[in-house]
Amino acid sequence: MAVSDHVDFNQFMEGVKRRNSHQPEFVQAVQEVAEDIFDFIQDKEAYHEAQILRRIAEPDRVVSFRVCWEDDNGNIRVQRGWRVQNNNAIGPYKGGIRFHPSVTESVLKFLAFEQTFKNALTGLPMGGGKGGSNFNPKGKSVREIMRFCQSFMTELYRHIGADVDVPAGDIGVGGREIGYMFGQYKRITNQFTGVLTGKGLEWGGSLIRTEATGYGAVYFLANMLATKGQDLTGKTAVISGSGNVATHAAEKIVQLGGKVLTLSDSGGFIHDPDGIDQEKIDWVKTHKTHRRGRIEDYVNEFKGASFHAGKTPWGVKCDVAMPCATQNELLGEDAKTLVANGCIAVSEGANMPTDLAGVHVFKDARILFAPGKASNAGGVAVSGLEMSQNSERRAWKEEELQQMLKDIMSGIHATCQRYGDQGGGYIDYVKGANIGGFKKVADAMLAFGVV
Ligand code: GLU
């Protein structure tokens, strides 16, 4: 007699916690999904019989390795690297690489788990993975970064491949780092394949990949507002972060007629009541990416703006908010403040930036709230299009790609509406994204039997 997994939610989460003790971010990500999936699979015996929920909460594999490199002073340095290959039921593992001192196995497991559902929502054939290292790029010379990337790839290359696992960038990994890693992969394997995405345009990269995550998150926001008969014209926006996602989200909001009030980094946030226009955004892009500067320098450049050290921007009154920095940067109290100040929509540009308490505040207030796995999927979606272009050995035009990105974001929005419509005009986008992503992956897993 087969044992079915008709355990209750608390029993299930107890098991997840026991098996992943000391991995709070991973447990949090599983809980957020399981809260919605439990209801959905209640009466669907096939999922229970196949223990799908239990299996989906366990990565296919976690590879951990040592990364040695030599700094400019001739010291030997040792970091830990990982690749989490979470699930390849619907396509090769796909997901970014993060270099940041906060990276742990827990963080990468949560990111790979989220990535699996996000990638499924795009409608493209990509499984979920994530990798990275606790290496801190801050303050390192360009040559040190190159040597670290080469050493990282010298181990990683044996685990990846264009049809196996296709990494990309994430926090601390941009075009430059992808270049160093791609160069090393090509040198070791003697193969020029689409093994990484986010590549330079001269060597297999795709147009609009850089802009895609931020732009996509704003398209999703516009889709949500449209369900209420509204758009971004004249709306004030509070954005956190000042990297690739935040600056491109800001750019698209400005293009669509909104006014961006804030940006931030780990030192604090800047508030510009006059609005952060395109010229100011361009300055931030150059300052943060090329000069590797701090956001606080903004106030010396643009009059009327203020810097708030050590603070997040959620106390600034706004119509819409976009957390675009990192996980757990918007907490329960911040969510309450946003709602009390009249914020009507939140679109996550980062992965899991809102903690569980915050998610519950937004759900209870029934505001428009898009989880990152839906709203920030534009980046990986264009990565998927980069893979297609590499397979075809050609490059699509910018207008074609812009349209595809818009269509993919509208498709994800429609999936969320389909599974998250609670009646009375309220769409639970968290539930819609979780069920929409889960169903595709789980049905593929069912087809493969017990593997
Ligand atoms: N790191 C991005 C994300 O969180 C992009 C991943 C990719 O393009 O593979 O979705």
From TrEMBL:
One GO MF term: glutamate dehydrogenase (NADP+) activity
Catalysed reaction, written as an equation: L-glutamate + NADP(+) + H2O = 2-oxoglutarate + NH4(+) + NADPH + H(+)
This protein's GO CC annotations: cytosol
Domain Glutamate/phenylalanine/leucine/valine/L-tryptophan dehydrogenase C-terminal: 206-449
Amino-acid positions noted as binding substrate in the UniProt annotation, renumbered to this chain: K94, Q115, K118, G169, S383
SUPFAM superfamilies: Aminoacid dehydrogenase-like, N-terminal domain, NAD(P)-binding Rossmann-fold domains
GO biological process: glutamate biosynthetic process
Keyword terms of this UniProt record: NAD, Nucleotide-binding, Oxidoreductase
Location of the active site: K130 (proton donor)
Binding site for NAD(+): T213, N244
Site (Important for catalysis): D170
Family annotation (PROSITE patterns): GLFV_DEHYDROGENASE
Homology family: Belongs to the Glu/Leu/Phe/Val dehydrogenases family.
Entry function: Catalyzes the reversible oxidative deamination of glutamate to alpha-ketoglutarate and ammonia.
Subunit structure: Homohexamer.
Protein name (Swiss-Prot/TrEMBL): Glutamate dehydrogenase
Lineage of the species this protein comes from: Bacteria, Pseudomonadati, Pseudomonadota, Alphaproteobacteria, Sphingomonadales
